C-alpha cells in the first residue's frame, strides 16, 4: 500500500525494517526528556542514545528513499500505492510539499501505523480473553449480521455497533500512546498561563481516557460505554485515540479499517482464551507506546 511491494515474512529486508522501527520507538521513549532539556543530548549516556536514534532513523529513511527512487517522478492514472498518490498530487499542485516529506510520511506509515494497530489488537485479544462475555456478544452480532459464509467487510461496520464499541473500548482502556508530544508554533495563553512559541507540550491522553469523572469505573472493560439506550453507537467527547484538531492522526481512517477487519474476521472464525490457570496481566510496558506483557493464547476454531 505504501511503496507498492508486498513483503514476505522471511524477507531479510522486511525483518530489518521491523527491527529498525522497534528500536527507534524504544530509543525515542528513553529520549523523551531530551525534548524538554535539549542540552542533555551532549551528556555521555544521552549522547550515545541520541546518536543511535539518528543512525537508525537515517537507515530507515535510506530504505524508504530506495523504494521512492524506483518509482521516479511518475504519476500514473491508475494509482498503485501511496507514492503514486503523492506524485500525482504534487504533479497537479506544483509546490505542494518538499520531496523529503514523502519519506517522512512513509516512515510514519511503516513505524507508527503498523505498531499502533498491532499493539491495539494485542491488548484487545488480552481483554477479550479476560472478558469472555464481551467476546461472545461480538461473535453473536457477527453471526447475526454477517453469518459464516463470507468474511466481514468494512461496509458491515455500520451494522455492527457492539463490535465497533468493543474496538473503541479497547482503544480507550489500552491508550497505547499515553503522551503526545507537540510544540507550540506561536505565543499563546492557556488557563491564564503564558506559553511561548517553541515550547514542548504533551497531551496526556491516558489521563483523559481514565478520568473517573468521565468514565465511571475506568479500569473496567465495558463496550456499553459507547452505546446509547437504543443500542446504537454514540460518540464521547473524552475519547481521542487519534488525538484531535489540526494535528489529528492522518492515518485514522486506515487504522480504523485495519482494526475492524482484523478483529471482526478473527472473532468470526475463532474463539480466544488464556491457558488454564493463567491470569491476565494488564500492567503494560512503557516505551514510546505501551506494550502488553508477553502472554499466551489458545485459539480455537469455532464450530
TrEMBL record:
It is a peripheral membrane protein. Its cofactor is heme. Pfam families: p450 (PF00067). Its main location: endoplasmic reticulum. GO terms for biological process: organic acid metabolic process; steroid metabolic process; xenobiotic metabolic process. One of its GO terms (cellular component) is cytoplasm. One of its GO terms (molecular function) is steroid hydroxylase activity. It comes from the Eukaryota. Heme binds at residue 249. The keyword Ion transport does not apply. Keywords: Endoplasmic reticulum, Heme, Iron, Membrane, Metal-binding, Microsome, Monooxygenase, Oxidoreductase. Gene3D superfamilies: Cytochrome P450. Belongs to the cytochrome P450 family. PANTHER family: CYTOCHROME P450 2U1 (PTHR24300:SF397), CYTOCHROME P450 508A4-RELATED (PTHR24300). This is Cytochrome P450 2U1-like. It comes from Branchiostoma floridae (Florida lancelet).
Amino acid at each position: 500500500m505504501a511503496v507498492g511491494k508486498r513483503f514476505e515474512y522471511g524477507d531479510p529486508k522486511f525483518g530489518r525494517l521491523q527491527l529498525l522501527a522497534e528500536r527507534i520507538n524504544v530509543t525515542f521513549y528513553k529520549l523523551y526528556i531530551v525534548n524538554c532539556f535539549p542540552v542533555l543530548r551532549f551528556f555521555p549516556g544521552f549522547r550515545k542514545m541520541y546518536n543511535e536514534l539518528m543512525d537508525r532513523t537515517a537507515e530507515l529513511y535510506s530504505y524508504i528513499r530506495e523504494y521512492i527512487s524506483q518509482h521516479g517522478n511518475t504519476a500514473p492514472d491508475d494509482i498503485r500505492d501511496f507514492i503514486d498518490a503523492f506524485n500525482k498530487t504534487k504533479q497537479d499542485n506544483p509546490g505542494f510539499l518538499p520531496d523529503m516529506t514523502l519519506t517522512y510520511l512513509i516512515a510514519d506509515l511503516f513505524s507508527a501505523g503498523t505498531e499502533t494497530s498491532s499493539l491495539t489488537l494485542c491488548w484487545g485479544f488480552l481483554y477479550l480473553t479476560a472478558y469472555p462475555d464481551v467476546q461472545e456478544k461480538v461473535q453473536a452480532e457477527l453471526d447475526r449480521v454477517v453469518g459464516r459464509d463470507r468474511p466481514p467487510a468494512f461496509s458491515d461496520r455500520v451494522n455492527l455497533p457492539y463490535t465497533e464499541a468493543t474496538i473503541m473500548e479497547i482503544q480507550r482502556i489500552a491508550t497505547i500512546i499515553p503522551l503526545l508530544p507537540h510544540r507550540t508554533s506561536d505565543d499563546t495563553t492557556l488557563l491564564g498561563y503564558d506559553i511561548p512559541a517553541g515550547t514542548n507540550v504533551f497531551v496526556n491522553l491516558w489521563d483523559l481516557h481514565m478520568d473517573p469523572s468521565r468514565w465511571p469505573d475506568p479500569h473496567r472493560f465495558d463496550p456499553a460505554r459507547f452505546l446509547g439506550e437504543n443500542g446504537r453507537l454514540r460518540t464521547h467527547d473524552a475519547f481521542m485515540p487519534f488525538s484531535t484538531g489540526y494535528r489529528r492522526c492522518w492515518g485514522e481512517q486506515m487504522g480504523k479499517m485495519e482494526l475492524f477487519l482484523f478483529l471482526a474476521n478473527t472473532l468470526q472464525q475463532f474463539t480466544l482464551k488464556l491457558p488454564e490457570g493463567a491470569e491476565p496481566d494488564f500492567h503494560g510496558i512503557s516505551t514510546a507506546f505501551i506494550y502488553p506483557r508477553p502472554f499466551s493464547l489458545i485459539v480455537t476454531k469455532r464450530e
